[in-house]
Amino acid sequence: MRRSILVLLLLVPLPLPAQSLADLARQERERREKIQAARSYDNRDLEAMRDGGRISTGERREREVLPEGAPPDAGKWRGQIERAELRVERLRRVIKDYDEKIELERRSFAGKLQGLAARERRLRRLRDARRKAERELEDALEDKRQLERRARRAGLLPGQLRE
What we know:
Blueprint: H1 2-11, H2 21-35, H3 43-49, H4 74-108, H5 116-153, H6 158-162
Helix pairs in contact: 4-5
């Protein structure tokens, strides 16, 4: 008896309310309108502003005051060196993160024999990525040193580069 009811229920299609793609799009549009807090710009807005409008990032930077006797392009050199320093710091953080991941991988498998091959592959990938980041750090440090040398040749003093 139960089987026949089950078979009957499976064979008889039940009408279910279907939701069309248009309904889903309308609901998504309504949801986005409700949560939209800030103005978002699309290509149409940018085209309208192309003729003379300005788009601000919201950040206001004060004009840099150069020390007396500094060459007029000291700000340019200082900006390039700051970017080089940021690159060096970012790479140092990346290397530190790889060190932590390698240590975590070592600890997570301590004393376990299962999955040793997979563990070794993960460790090898992490070590290779760390070596690559170390090479990039060396390159970044050399680029920074060369940039400082070129700035000194252009007439800037070391103190003028760091102010």
